């Protein structure tokens, strides 16, 4: 996950290279994976924003300042919310333990009734009328022979509600924010300022981009499904404890069937189970509040609508504070009218828990920053594809790889769901690919996330002008740019045209036609989701047989404009200076440095 915006990074984190090319720390901004409890507390988003404006790193915009002010107010309400959620989780843990104990008690009582019922039937068959009359008086009146498992399950749940009570209600959470507006208007920057400031205030925090969130949902759904399937095995822990019960084999089979049915009910409601693990680290103390920062909410297909509705609604109902960004207002997200009823419930739920805030600026501030902060002689985007530009691109490759040292080799990196990706050329966090290798094959967000997490500097050659003929490659390239940007990679490109002309089409025709074109593509998310529950993997070939995304030309225009805007920002000094602070490669180095530093100091302290 990207830990903060490139722009807000500069004020509070000065992780730079010294003249001797060794890593040096000037300051440390704390995030969800901070390395030291003594890290300096990050100021609120309004303070960060005003400071950047004063330094001339941002151009003042009243719309942005208004959003920063609202985020600042939300931040101020979180401390009390955290205390209330900690108390709520204590009540919830106590309730869960009592309910499970009572459920087992009820199940055993029903099993005893089953056992007595068997004895009664046996005696009846033998025709012993005296014993039959005596046992009939002892027969529980509430036993309902032949009752269905569903009715039995519901009856047991109702009894538990009356004995233990219903699940405790989470305290009212502060209303979150749904920030929407044009590309480059500062949505992500402001959200990341807020996210960085929540460290140390709220225990459970996550920041996801849309692609990353969908992949995580898929991964967790598969894991939950796999675990539940394994638990249905005859050799599972369920069978073991049932076999040790003091009942005959028929009653034990009945208990096992009831337990399996409970698991099946839970399995059918898999999205709430995924939601419960979406933010909170269950290995750690789960008490406390939770915040979800969700960048670029989209509804690209039916799965996205169903998954987002189920998971976000569950999180909001359980007290999670949501701060989200999107290009569209919530009601306009579902342009194609897919799953209208589910989508409307999702919009209504967000309306209850979030304030909708429009950043009304028509200015793409990434361009403003790029124009005012030209990279001092540092060229990262080489065009057109002539001999001069290609020679400069090759020279830059050799220059960068010489700087990082090490031998240029091929390597293999791990991708989600047990897959791998071959990297043709790499050296110490620097990798090189061709456009065709990354975008001309059936790769998707999972592959691009793996590249972005493993390499802080990426070279891509042979980038063509996009046209309808290669529209699937164009979508993959947009996803690739999104992930490189989200992970704060340094990007060097060799392309056929300037950034502004990249998505303007060719002599073969425009990339989209707003009046008649509906973008129909083998969306990589759909390919990734196909059979993911059953297989936990992704097929690399064949036509898509699952959900096919039908996106309007207007939706595609948002995506193209976002890609262009991000490519422009990725050339600016303010972005490039943040690479050494924010990329996962350097964060890992920083943690390793801290571990070594702590290890060296500890013996001296002990001595």
From TrEMBL:
<dbReference type="GO" id="GO:0016887">
    <property type="term" value="F:ATP hydrolysis activity"/>
</dbReference>
<keyword id="KW-0067">ATP-binding</keyword>
<feature type="coiled-coil region">
    <location>
        <begin position="64"/>
        <end position="98"/>
    </location>
</feature>
<dbReference type="Pfam" id="PF03969">
    <property type="entry name" value="AFG1_ATPase"/>
</dbReference>
<dbReference type="InterPro" id="IPR027417">
    <property type="entry name" value="P-loop_NTPase"/>
</dbReference>
<protein>
    <recommendedName>
        <fullName>AAA+ ATPase domain-containing protein</fullName>
    </recommendedName>
</protein>
<keyword id="KW-0547">Nucleotide-binding</keyword>
<dbReference type="GO" id="GO:0005524">
    <property type="term" value="F:ATP binding"/>
</dbReference>
<comment type="similarity">
    <text>Belongs to the AFG1 ATPase family.</text>
</comment>
<dbReference type="InterPro" id="IPR005654">
    <property type="entry name" value="ATPase_AFG1-like"/>
</dbReference>
<keyword id="KW-0175">Coiled coil</keyword>
């Amino acid at each position: 996950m990207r830990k903060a915006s490139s722009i807000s990074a500069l004020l509070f984190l000065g992780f730079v290279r010294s003249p001797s090319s060794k890593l040096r720390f000037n300051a440390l901004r704390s995030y969800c994976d901070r390395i030291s409890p003594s890290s300096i507390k990050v100021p609120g988003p309004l303070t960060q924003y005003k400071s950047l404006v004063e330094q001339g790193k941002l151009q003042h915009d009243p719309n942005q300042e208004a959003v920063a002010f609202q985020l600042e107010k939300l931040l101020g309400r979180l401390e009390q919310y955290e205390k209330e959620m900690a108390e709520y989780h204590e009540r919830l843990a106590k309730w869960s333990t009592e309910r499970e104990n009572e459920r087992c008690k009820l199940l055993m009582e029903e099993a005893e009734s089953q056992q007595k019922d068997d004895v009664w039937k046996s005696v009846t068959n033998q025709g012993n009328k005296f014993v039959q009359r005596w046992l009939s008086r002892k027969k529980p009146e509430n036993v309902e022979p032949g009752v269905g498992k569903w009715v039995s399950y519901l009856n047991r749940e109702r009894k538990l509600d009356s004995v233990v009570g219903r699940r405790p209600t989470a305290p009212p959470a502060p209303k979150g924010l749904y920030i929407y507006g044009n590309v480059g208007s500062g949505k992500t920057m402001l959200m990341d300022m807020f996210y960085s400031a929540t460290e140390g205030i709220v225990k459970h925090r996550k920041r996801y981009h849309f692609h990353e969130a969908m992949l995580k949902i898929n991964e967790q759904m598969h894991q939950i499904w796999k675990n539940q399937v394994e638990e249905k095995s005859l050799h599972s822990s369920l069978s073991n404890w049932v076999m040790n019960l003091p009942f005959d084999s028929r009653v034990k089979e009945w208990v096992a069937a009831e337990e399996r049915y409970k698991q099946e009910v839970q399995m059918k409601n898999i999205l709430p189970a995924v939601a419960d693990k979406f933010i909170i680290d269950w290995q750690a103390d789960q008490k406390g509040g939770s915040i979800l920062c969700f960048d670029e909410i989209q509804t690209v297909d039916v799965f996205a609508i169903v998954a987002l509705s189920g998971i976000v609604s569950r999180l909001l109902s359980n007290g999670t504070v949501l701060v989200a960004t999107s290009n569209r207002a919530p009601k306009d997200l579902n342009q194609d009218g897919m799953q209208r009823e589910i989508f409307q419930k999702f919009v209504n739920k967000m309306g209850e828990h979030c304030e909708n805030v429009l950043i009304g600026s028509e200015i793409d501030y990434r361009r403003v920053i790029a124009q005012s902060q030209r990279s001092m002689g540092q060229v990262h985007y080489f065009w057109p594809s002539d001999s001069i530009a290609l020679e400069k691109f090759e020279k830059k490759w050799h220059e960068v790889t010489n700087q990082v040292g090490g031998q240029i080799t091929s390597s293999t990196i791990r991708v989600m769901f047990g897959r791998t990706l071959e990297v043709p050329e790499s050296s110490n966090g620097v990798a090189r690919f061709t456009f065709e290798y990354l975008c001309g094959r059936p790769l998707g967000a999972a592959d691009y996330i793996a590249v972005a997490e493993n390499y802080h500097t990426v070279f891509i050659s042979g980038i063509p002008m996009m046209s309808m003929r290669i529209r699937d490659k164009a979508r993959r390239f947009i996803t690739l740019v999104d992930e490189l940007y989200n992970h704060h990679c340094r990007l060097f490109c060799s392309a056929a045209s300037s950034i502004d002309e990249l998505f303007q089409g060719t002599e073969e025709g425009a990339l989209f036609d707003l009046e008649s074109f509906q973008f129909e593509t083998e969306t990589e998310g759909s390919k990734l989701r196909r059979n993911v529950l059953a297989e936990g993997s992704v097929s690399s070939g064949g036509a898509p047989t699952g959900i096919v995304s039908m996106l309007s030309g207007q939706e595609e225009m948002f995506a193209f404009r976002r890609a262009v805007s991000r490519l422009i920002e990725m050339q600016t000094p303010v972005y490039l200076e943040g690479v050494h602070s924010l990329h996962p490669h350097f964060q890992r180095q920083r943690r390793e440095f801290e571990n070594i530093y702590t290890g060296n100091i500890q013996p001296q302290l002990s001595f």
